[in-house]
Design a protein that fits this description.
- The complex is a heterodimer of chains A (92) and B (636).
- Chain A has 92 residues and is mainly α.
- Chain A is built from five helices and no strands.
- By secondary structure, chain B is of the alpha/beta class.
- Chain B is 61% helix and 12% strand.
- Classes of the chains: A mainly alpha (92), B alpha/beta (636).
């Protein structure tokens, strides 16, 4: 869900959440979270502010993505709708 | 009847040969009259659920309130030869009641009394003379079972009893007994001579073993009959509650569907969970797609620019030398002009940004690909929604059925179903034991006969021995002769019953395609149509017609004619069938009683058969707990 939340924030172009949670991502976490570095690549290429510390930004993007998902589900819509919208989303 | 059921005080039916019609609305005592007859003969009767009615509940309520503690029913039977048998069975709360029977003016002891009544009407045979139109289940085992293997043994025996087969069976038994008696005397006589003493002792030993084995066999037959009765009672409950049983079956089927659906839903939930775990890869590929496309365009542009630069360089070198850079050939003015024009057309791209390599960035993004997990997760989620909708539907259906079942005696049905299955299984096992026991007895009997034969051959044929041997041979030959005749006799009887049942059926049915009835070895009946085709199903009304046909046929072929009493026989019949049955009734037996209510037969129906009616009676309501038997008055 964490990785999905990052992807959601990147798709929608969300503003990252203001606050980092210290120690949330550590080297062990990175190894299991992003073994092929695809999250790091995506953040560095899509967000200029992520070039220096992509995982720190990733954490704040994840928070924003989770908020987005939560708002969607809280409004009574389904996970299925959310995922369908993602596949149709195209940033102009 | 005295204080019996709804009949308060002493009330009697004085009947002669002929057709009697007794009118009575629901609850006025029509079935009670039939039960009264059963009470006299058997000392008990069953309710509609097949349960034996407690005598305490039979005593008339008003009589009980007045302090009476007993009821009784008396029956006077007159044989064709004028011999009268009077039977009265009394129940007393103190336990002092009992059976009194006198025959031709002479009182009988208890054992003789029971045997006399049993000879008139045996319990399993009663259904053919005391016909309850509401209880067709009693006849369905006759009408539906396809072969003897599944037919109730008791039913087959009871039909053969009506037809007189037991007389033949008894004759065979008697001759064998006489034969055995003579063999015993031969054995004893031979022993006296001392020659065949050892053989005689072996015979006696075998006789003892056979006697023991027969006792055990009788016990097994008793067990079989007891289990059969349980089967019959359970079948009654199940038949009575067929609709509820069907609901129970539906409920079980729905339960299975629900369990399957739940299991499948759980699998889909697990599948969805698995796919959801991978949706981030899909989502990431979606996120980077625009950037990837932009990079692909950039790389494409760089390649175009690089090609253009190369071409320009080549042209410039050629123009500088005024010779082809590749082959060295001099260039003419025209070619030079074309090359200059071409050079002007070529657009050189911007120089590459030293810090940005689109091809490297593109290569990194190409590693982020769609896995299809989002589509699959969506598909599984849709199936879970469908399963949820189906589950709601199933639960609603089950709730409806639960409401209906709530009104039915489901515990009784379940118990009856279990008992039916269990008892059938037991009967199967007991039948096997009976077969084995009979085989063992037959083997011992064979050995005994061989030994007796040996004794007979080895003994001197003096006067006494010779006479015994001759009589023994005669008894044995007679037993064999009757035994041989038995199968043929049985087949003849069955054939006759089939012909008569068919004949009556054709008079009662209204369907022109019904061409007759066919009887199987267990006296089950099939309806036959054109080309000898068997009709696979029958309606309730048709069953009733077939049952009446069998009863009529049995009465025609019975060794002893008996009255026929019919309680509500027309409930399932339409007007045409009713008219046909009414027209036939007078021929069914010398004495026929019809117990009917007003919805079954009307004035017009009875007018058609008025000349055949001996008397019409009515069961008049006095109050909820009392009925009086009166002469029938129309509109009364």
């Amino acid at each position: 869900m964490y990785r999905l939340a990052i992807a959601v924030a990147l798709i929608v172009g969300l503003e990252p959440a203001p606050v980092e949670v210290p120690g949330r991502i550590n080297y062990l976490g990175v190894a299991s979270l992003d073994p092929e570095g695809s999250i790091r690549t995506a953040i560095m290429q899509l967000r200029d502010e992520g070039r220096e510390r992509p995982y720190a930004l990733g954490e704040r993007l994840a928070e924003a993505g989770i908020d987005e998902l939560h708002q969607h589900l809280d409004s009574g819509r389904s996970m299925r709708e959310f995922l369908s919208q993602l596949t149709e989303f195209r940033r102009t | 009847m005295e204080d019996f059921g709804i009949f308060y005080g002493s009330q009697a039916l004085d009947l002669d040969a002929g057709l009697y019609v007794v009118h009575g609305e629901n609850g006025r005592g029509k079935t009670t009259i039939i039960n009264a007859i059963k009470w006299v003969f058997f000392g008990r009767f069953e309710d509609r659920q097949g349960r034996t009615v407690d005598p305490k509940g039979i005593l008339n309520r008003d009589a009980k309130r007045e302090g009476s503690t007993k009821f009784s029913v008396g029956l006077t039977l007159t044989d064709d030869d004028g011999v009268k048998t009077i039977a009265r069975r009394t129940w007393e709360a103190s336990g002092d009641g009992g059976l009194y029977v006198e025959r031709d003016g002479k009182p009988l002891n208890q054992a003789e009394a029971e045997i006399t009544l049993q000879n008139y009407l045996e319990k399993n045979v009663a259904r053919f003379f005391l016909f309850d139109g509401e209880q067709l289940r009693e006849y369905e085992e006759l009408l539906f079972e396809e072969d003897e293997a599944t037919q109730s043994e008791a039913v087959r025996r009871s039909i053969e009893q009506i037809l007189g087969l037991p007389v033949l069976e008894q004759a065979i038994t008697d001759f064998r007994a006489v034969d055995k008696d003579f063999e015993g005397k031969i054995t004893k006589l031979a022993r006296r001579t001392g020659k065949t003493e050892k053989l005689s002792r072996m015979v006696e030993q075998l006789e003892t073993e056979v006697a023991e084995a027969r006792k055990d066999l009788k016990g097994l037959e008793g067990l079989r009959d007891a289990e059969q009765e349980k089967v019959d009672q359970a079948a009654t409950v199940l038949q009575e509650n067929e609709a509820a049983q069907e609901l129970v079956n539906q409920m079980e089927a729905l339960q299975v569907q629900l369990e399957t659906l739940t299991s499948q839903r759980e699998e889909r939930v697990a599948d969805r969970k698995r796919e959801l775990a991978d949706t981030w890869e899909d989502a990431l590929a979606i996120a980077v797609a625009p950037r990837r496309e932009a990079l692909e365009a950039e790389v494409e542009a760089h390649e175009v620019a690089a090609r253009a630069a190369y071409d320009a360089e080549q042209i410039e070198r050629s123009l500088a030398k005024i010779a082809c850079d590749l082959c060295g050939q001099d260039l003419g003015d025209e070619v030079v002009a074309r090359l200059r024009a071409r050079l002007d057309q070529i657009e050189l791209g911007e120089a590459e940004d030293g810090g940005h390599d689109p091809r490297q960035e593109l290569a990194a993004l190409l590693r982020i690909t769609r896995s299809g997990a989002i589509s699959r997760a969506i598909a599984f989620d849709e199936r879970i929604s469908e399963a949820n909708t189906k589950r709601v539907g199933l639960e609603q259906d089950m709730e409806k059925i639960r409401d209906e079942i709530g009104r039915a005696p489901t515990d009784d049905i379940r118990v009856a179903g279990d008992q039916h299955a269990k008892s059938l299984e037991q009967i199967g096992a007991i039948k096997k034991q009976i077969e084995d026991a009979e085989a063992a007895i037959n083997e011992k009997e064979r050995k005994r006969r061989d030994l007796v034969q040996e004794i007979s051959s080895n003994s001197d044929d003096d006067g006494e021995m010779k006479a015994l041997k001759e009589r023994d041979k005669l008894a044995a030959d007679l037993a064999d002769l009757f035994a041989e005749a038995r199968a043929g006799f049985r087949d003849n009887l069955r054939g006759q019953v089939e012909r008569d049942a068919s004949d009556i059926f054709l008079r009662l049915t209204t369907d022109p395609n019904h061409l007759g009835l066919r009887i199987n070895t267990g006296y089950g009946l099939e309806t036959i149509g054109p080309n000898d085709e068997v009709f696979p199903t029958r309606s309730a009304g048709q069953e009733q017609i077939v049952a009446l046909s069998l009863i009529g046929a049995l009465n025609r072929n019975a060794t002893r004619q008996a009255p026929v009493m019919m309680d509500t026989p027309f409930g399932r019949l339409d007007k045409r069938h009713r008219a046909k049955v009414l027209a036939f009734l007078g021929e069914m037996a010398d004495q026929v009683f019809l117990l009917v209510h007003s919805a079954e037969v009307d004035e017009a129906d009875l007018k058609a058969i008025a000349p055949h009616i001996k008397e019409e009676l009515s069961l008049k309501r006095i109050d909820s707990f009392r009925t009086e038997i009166r002469r029938f008055e129309a509109n009364g």
